[in-house]
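In full, the data:

***
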Amino acid sequence: MSTGICMPVLMSVAGPMVPGIGGGCVDREASVVELMKAMGLSPEAVERVSRLWGKSAARHGGRTHLLLGHLLDTAAVAGVMWDRYVSAALRRRLDEISGGRGRLWLMWVCGIHDCGKACPAFQAMDAAEAAPVLAAGLTWGRLPANGPKRWRHDVAGAVLLTPRLVAEWGGEEAAGWVWPLVAGHHGTFPSAAALSPPRGAQGRGAAWEEAQRAVVDVFTRAVGFEDLADVRPVGSLRKAEQLALSGLIVMADWIASDSSQFPGLADAGLISFAEAQRRAEAAWERLRLRGGWRDLALPQNPLDPLTRRLGVQPRASQRELVERAWSMPVPGLLVAEAPMGEGKTKAALAAAEVLAARFGLDGVFVAMPTQATSDPMYEQVLQWVRTFDAELESQVALLHGRRRFNTWWRAIWDGKPRPDGEGFGCGDEGHHDATGLADDDFGAIDEDAEYGMAPARPSTEQAGADGPAYWFLGDKRGLLTAFAVGTVDHLLHAATRTRHVMLRFAGLAGKVVVVDEVHAADVYMRQFLVEALRWLGQAGVPVVLLSATLPPAQRQRFVDAYLSGVLGTADVHKYVPEPAGYPCVTVAYGVGGRAVAETSRQAVPSWRESTPVRLSWLPDTDPAGTRVAAAVREAVADGGVALVVVNQVARAQAIYRDLRDGGFDGVLHLLHARLCAAHRADRTAKCLRLMGPQADDDRPQRMVVVATQLAEQSFDVDADVLITDLAPTDLLLQRIGRLHRHSGTPRPAAHQMPRVMVTGAAPGRDGAPRFLRASELIYGQWSLLRAATLVTEAAGTLTAADAGGPAAQGWSIPADVPDLVARAYGTAGICPAGWNEAGAWEQWQAKERARETRAEEYLLCRRREWAFPTLEGLHYAGSRAASEEQLDAVVRDGDPTVEVVVIRRSSGGYRAVDGTWLGVHGEVDDDEVTDRLMGGTLRLPSRLTDAAQAELGPLAGWAGRPWLRYRSALVLEEDGTRLLGADRVSYDDVLGLVIEREPR
C-alpha cells in the first residue's frame, strides 16, 4: 500500500518535512508509531510491530532496543559513513546503480539487514522479550531446538524480503544480488537452497505476514523512499563490489549494535529517523571514526608526490612509476621491478597518491612480507601521511600481532610518550587501555552469541577529540582504517572463504593497495595473492606490486589474475611484453571490455651503475658452521662489516658462539626468529643504527651480524662483505642487496669491491653438490640446484681446490638480476649433466601441485564460480577458522606453530624474561608490567607444537588481563631450562631460544 505521507497527523509533529523520493513527504521527526498510523496500519498491527525487539536487555546494556530502532540506527550510521567514510569511487558506483540516490540506497540496504528478526525463531530467543510480543498477538508453536537446523535471522531476512523484491522490483535480477547482502550480514553467504525455514520458524498466519510486511514498509518510508518498489536499483554491482558493500553493512551494524553508543529504546513512540541520525552523529564523534583523504585533490605538478610530498630527487625508475600512474585511463595494476635500494616504496606511495586522487580512493594499504619489515614501513607511512594532514596520523594502523612493541604505534594508539620524547598531554586520566582489544572477537554482537560467538565488549568513550579510533583495533577491523601497514597475510585473508571476509575486503576496496617484496610469496601463498588480485581487479582497486627479483612467469600470472577480475572471467591471458630493460614498470588494465598490458617502452636507467660482485664458494654443510666462523674472522681481520645469512637458527647460534667464544674483537650481533619480541626489536634497531643509511658516524670499524632469513629483504643495512648459505636465486640476490647498498659509505681498502662467499653446499657424488639438510627442507632440491649452477658459472666449480679463489666472472648487480631470475625459474634445463635436474624438477613440481591443491580448499572463489554474478553460496564449503592464529595457518603453508611468553620461575613466584617480578601466580598489575612481560613473546618451532599444546597454558594470574589470558607461558625452572616433550629448552638473552634433544 502506497499512500502519501503528507497527512494531517504528521503535520502536527514539530520538525522538518523532507520531500519523499516518489512525491510524498517524510517528517524525519515523526515517530515510527505516527508513521505506521499515517500509512494506514490497523491499531493491532501498530501494536504488534511496536513490540518486536531487536536487541535484548540481557545483551544490550540492560535496556531493550526495539527492532525498528535498530534498523533506523543502522541506516543512520550508514548515512554518516557515506558522508565521512565511504570512498568517492564507491559513492559513484552506488549512485550509478541507484539512479543518483546512492546515499539513500546505502542507508536502506544497511538498515534492512535485520528485518529477519521479525520472525518467531528470533523473537522467542529471550523469554522476557518475547512476553510483550506474544501479548500483542504474535504467537508461535513449538520451534526447532538449538543446533545446526536453528533458523537464523540473517537467512530469515532473505526469505522474508526476496519474494517481495521479485514482485515489486519486476523480476529476479536485482533481487538476486541484494538478498545475499541481507543473508550474509553475519559473516557467511548461504546458498539459495538454505532459504528453506523449518516449520513455524519464519512465522505463519495473517498477523505475522502483516507485521513482517509492515517492518519493511515502515523502515523504507522512514528512511526516505516512497515504497519498496521505489528502492529498486537501476543497475547492479559487480560481485566484488557486492562483497565490499556487504562489509560496509557489517560495519554499520556493528557500530549501531554498540549499547554504550546506542542505548536501548523500548518505547516505539521515541523512535524516529531524526533521532537515529542524532544518535549516529554523536556515536561517530565519540568513537572518533573517520575516513582518510576524503576526495583528495590532484597534485598541481605530476611529480609533486615525489618532490614535495616525499622530499626526494626523483630517480628515473621512480619517475617512470609515477608517470605510469598518471597515464592509466582507469584503475589498474602496476608492477614495478627495480634493484634493491632503488626507492621503490617511496615511488609506490607517490603513485598511490596519484591513483587515489584520480580515481577517488580514500587511503592506502601497504602489505609487507613479515612483521619485521612492517615496522619501518609503518613509520615511513606515518611521516608521509602527516604531509597531507597531521591529524591523519591517528588513522594509520599497524597490523601485526607484535605492534605494541613499536614505539610509534604505542605513542599514537596507546597514549605513550612519543619516541622523540614529546608526550600527548593526555596524562593517566586520559589514557585508554586499548591493548586488549585485538584478542576479543569483535565480530560477535548481541544475539550472535547464539551462533557460537562471544558477545562484544561495549566500547569506552575516549577523552580528547584528536586521538585514534580504538574501534578499529577490534578483530577483523584493522583494514577498515584509512591507512594501514601490515603483513601481506591481511591481504591474503581477504581472499579466503572465511567468516566475515567481507569486512576485510571492504577495508581494501576503498584504498590503493601496495604489495612490497611480492616475490616473497611462495606457491601456496601465491594462490591467495592471485585470488585477491582477481577480486581487487573486479572492484576497481588500483594495485601496485613491488619486487627486485620477480620471475617473468609470476609477473604474467599476476597480470592475468587482475585482468580476469576486471573482465569478469577466470581464463584471461594477456601476453606481457618483455620489458625494455631493468628497472621496468608493467601496467595492466581493462577498458571497453578489452585487456591492456604494457611494459616500459624504453630502458629506464637505475640510479646507480651496475657493480661487479665477486662470488666464491665456501664449501661447508656442517650445521656447526666452524668453517664459516673462520672465514668471517679472516674477512674482517683488517676491519669491515660482515653480514652472515644462514638458513637455520641453530646454525646461526653455533656460528655466533664460535665467534664469541673465540674472542672476536669487534661488535657482534645475532638476529633470528627465535629471539623474544623485545630482544629482536632492540637488536634489529641496533643493526639499523649501525649499518643503516644514516650510520656513517656510528659505523663500527669491525662488526659481524649473524642472521637468518630475517636479513634477506626490507632490511636496509649495508655490509662490506656477505657470507651466505645457498638459497634460491631470487632470495640469494635479495641477500646480495644488503651488500654495498648505500653510496658514500666509508669502507676499508680490502672491501672496495663487493664480495660474496656462498656456503651451505659442498661437493657430492659425480660432481653434483650436496646441501644443508635444513636448506633442502625449506627450499627443495631443484631450486638449490639451479642456484648452485648459476653461482658455479660465476665462481667456478664447487671443490675444495677452487673454493675461495678469484671469481671466474662474477655477477654485475643489478644489471644481471632479471636474466639470473629468469634462468633460475625458466623451463629449460641449466644444470650440468649428472646433477639429476630432471628428477629434482619432477619432485619439486609434485610438491608444488600438492601445495596448490591444499590452498584451493580455502580460496574465496573456485574457478568455476568466478563468473557467478552474485555472492549467493559463497560460503557453502567455507573454512571456519576461529582465530587469527588459525587464519594465519590457512594462508601460510607449513606445520602449525605456537606463540608463547617466556617466563622464569623464581622463589615464591614468577618473573618476566627481563627479570620483572610478576607475583605468586604471575599477576600483572599494570600496563608497564604487561609490556615487559609481553616482551618475552616468541614463536616456537613446529617440532615443539604438539608438546606445547599439550603442556603449556596461561598462568593463573593472567585471567583478568586481555593481552594475556589466552597466551601460553613457557615457564623455565630456576636452572633456566625445562623439558618440553622430548626436548630440553632454555632461553639465553643473547642466543635466544636454545633447543637440545634429551638423550634417551
